[in-house]
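Example A, followed by Example B.
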Amino acid sequence: MSEMRIALVAEGVTDHVVIEAALKAILPQPFVLTQLQPEPNLPKMGQGWGGVLRWCRDAGTRHTGSLDADPTLSLFDMLILHVDADVTECHYDVHGEAIASQATPLGWKSLPCSKPCPPPRDNCDELAVAVATWLGQAQLGPKSVLCIPSKSSGTWLACAVLPQDHALLNSPECNLALESTLERLPLKPPPGRIKKSRREYLVHQQSLTDSWSRVTGMCSQAMAFEKQVRDFLQTTAEMPMAQAAQGATL
């Protein structure tokens, strides 16, 4: 079975670790996950959701229509575009006046745009609309998967590794401080304090993969991400049959 080639546009390197762990639990085949944003060797877009915004803006500048047809993405079977739901609480000017001044002329959705939580989906839907405006003339296509953890990808990690009765897991998708609180936990008992770094997240990556069903049971947005990936797999599986049927009628 050939490896699936997946491109990732994400806020940061810890998000890469979390999403890779989720994909290992969801996908039935091997894959290669290539991080397009933040750029590993030339981080011109910057880190965080501002980097995702800049990537989307540039994608809409260079390409019109479905991102599936963007020549710069032609080598990939899937594109995952990640942004955390806590962005609905933010302002554009946190990434500088240059970004804030573009919001109105380019038609970006106004921020902040947060909704009451629960339910977490309302904020995620608002952010999905914002991402669509950041893309401008470009659009998510059938090969594009939008990943919006609530309130952050650290929520998924916490749900995988913390004891089920831990106080942080009380309505975890609506806890804006959950990810930062992981960094302030006592060192013991295990898993203890988890700093937001690629090295520390990698320590727990396999646990996240192994406990993915637990995560989806606690986090509706993890389930939504899994559904999008499985829908993609179903669509790609049906393509050869549809093409074969079309060929038979010619």
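Example B, a separate protein, is given below in the same form.
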Amino acid sequence: MFLSLDPVYWLFLIPGLILAGIASAKTKGTFNKYSKVAASSRMTGEQAARRMLDRNGLQNVTINRVRGFLSDHYNPMNRTLNLSPDVYDSPSLSAIGVACHEAGHALQHATGYVPLQIRSAMVPITQFSSWGSYIFILLGVFMQSAGMMKLGVILFAVGFIFSVITLPVEWDASARAKRQMVTDGIVQPSEAQDAGKVLDAAFLTYVASAVTALLTLLYYMMRLGLLGGRDD
């Protein structure tokens, strides 16, 4: 049986779900902890990101306030850095860490950071594969078509590759943020360590996503007989 009702599926999935839950709780807990600690510079997240961008000649990158909790992101299509209210308006170490991390993505874009270029190029196909994979897998089950199921697994593998490529992109953006928070006079070195804890916790969510995708991919491959014996 090639459906989520299969108990073997949950044996593969549960470790990833546990890791994802731990990562999410750690990210929220760490962000909340340091959202109560203001930087000595009293810069808001928006001001910190603006300084980091300007010091690197990126005055053309616009910073916007967007809705949502931790909905922060950099959009390379229109060169906008989008910050949630909890980050945009706050002078906390959490806000500065997140804002500078997103500014780090703008720096990656400006310098032609290859993993970011690959990830950006994969976005359209990944958007299709994220839902297309399950459609083809389910159709393959009901139509008893191994070929269709394999196509679904291939599409799912695209999503897994995307999650793996995301890891160096996020790690590098955090590394740039940690370094430039200090060199640009945004925070003190000791404060940068605490702001960095927020970024480290957030990185765990990307690791959890990649692990969950890998375990799910391995399950599908096993069910197709691509790993071990074929399950008839």
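On Example B: The first strand starts at residue 62 and ends at 65.
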